[in-house]
Amino acid sequence: MGNILTVTLNPAIDVRYNVENMRLGEVNRTKYIEKNAGGKGINVSRVITQLGGNVLATGIVGGFTGKLFLSKLNLDNIKNDFLETNYETRTCIAVIDNNIKGVTEFLESAEGTPEDYQKFIEKYTSLLDNGVDIVCGSGSLLKGIGKDAYNILIAEANKRGIKFILDTSGESLVKGIEEKPFLIKPNQEELEDITGKKFNNVNELVDTAKEIINSGVENVMITLGGDGALLINKDVVYKATFPPVKIKNTVGSGDSTIAGIAYGLSVNKSLEDSFRLGIACGTTNAMMDKTGSIDQEVLEEILPKIKIEKL
After folding, report:
1. Is 167 within a domain?
2. Where are the alpha helices (DSSP H) in 143-197?
3. What is the DSSP letter of 21?
4. Is 255 one of the catalytic residues?
5. Which helix (H) or strand (E) holds 240?
6. Which CATH number characterizes residue 63's domain?
7. Within a domain: residue 18?
8. Spatial CA neighbour of 148 closest among 177, 125, 124, 182
9. Domain span at residue 128?
10. What is the rounded CA–CA span in Å between residue 242 and residue 47?
11. What are the two backbone dihedrals, phi and then psi, of residue 134, each rounded to the nearest 5 degrees?
């Protein structure tokens, strides 16, 4: 089994409020509240841990919320080695009301410095040299560090023959593509944002993905919400679909998908089977109340129902 390193450069304390009949401009009382260590890479780490994989979480944290964040990781039995700074780790709030379609989110921003990032690079390269097979870099970046922050991480992994899976958006995705990661995972909206195109069908998505592949990225995975996902490389185009399920909380489903793919690759599953596992993990997460989490029994029920076809 290979070793997986997750990188979360803008972690958070994720707070989930369950309410009934939320009213703007009025007092709303919660029916349930939950606080977890959050950030896209943390969701990836949690699901890989639940799958039984070898995963270490790293990134940058700070302040009192940073200490709470690390304590939550430890409670979840997620192995971690983070750079601690003086800047306060952010808090993000998700409000779930069964009477409202979708999840209402409030996302703070957080600060960092170029000096903190340089210290992190030293930690990161040391971790790579201790034996890593796959790196998952996920999420947004701290304010104050460059939009090309993922580029150095990808380059250092590539030097060592380590697969780098990049899940970010906007300018940091555009920059990251330049360093030719093993896999990127935009959704359709994110791909439209970085290309300036509006996609009307799967063929247009595939054509754009192949343009990115021609620039050096090995695999492009495009998530399509309820319509499943595409996985494209120079040899094949896969389309994945999942069965109708009762959706509870879609937050973290993309991260759970990345976790399933990374875990599958780490135990030498084929790319197709890793893709299937990833989609099953993302679907299972959507059926859970907790963000970035799966249930093994549900996963085992869902996995055979994931349909993968070659286009």
Report:
1. yes
2. 149-159, 170-177, 188-195
3. S
4. yes
5. strand 237-241
6. 3.40.1190.20
7. no
8. 177
9. 3-10+39-87+110-310
10. 19
11. -140, 135
What's the one-letter identity of residue 213?
A: I
CA–CA gap between residue 32 and residue 34 (Å, rounded): 7
pTM of the predicted model, to two decimals?
Answer: 0.91
Kindly name the residue from 14, 76, 167, 255 that is annotated as catalytic. Answer: 255
Cβ atoms within 10 Å of 269's Cβ, excluding its own: 16
Three-point CA angle 222, 44, 88, nearest 5°: 115
Number of domains composing the chain: 1
The tokens for 208 are 């754009």
Tens of pLDDT along the chain (311 residues) come to 789 999 999 999 989 898 988 888 999 999 889 888 989 999 999 999 999 999 999 999 999 999 999 999 999 899 999 999 999 999 999 898 888 877 888 988 888 899 999 999 999 999 999 999 999 999 999 998 989 999 999 999 999 999 999 999 999 999 999 999 999 999 999 999 999 999 989 999 999 999 999 999 999 999 988 889 999 999 999 999 988 888 887 778 899 999 999 999 999 999 999 999 999 999 999 888 777 889 999 999 999 999 999 98
Q: Which two tokens stand for residue 169?
A: 């958006």
> Position of tokens 């976790």?
259
In a domain, 104, yes or no: no
What is the full DSSP assignment across 23-58? -TTS----SEEEEEEESHHHHHHHHHHHHT-EEEEE
Is there a domain that residue 52 lies in? yes
Q: What is the C-alpha end-to-end distance of the chain, expressed in Å?
A: 31
Among candidates 176, 215, 222, which has minimal Cα distance to 197? Answer: 222
Beta bridge partners of 104: 95
The structure tokens 């399920």 sit at: 245
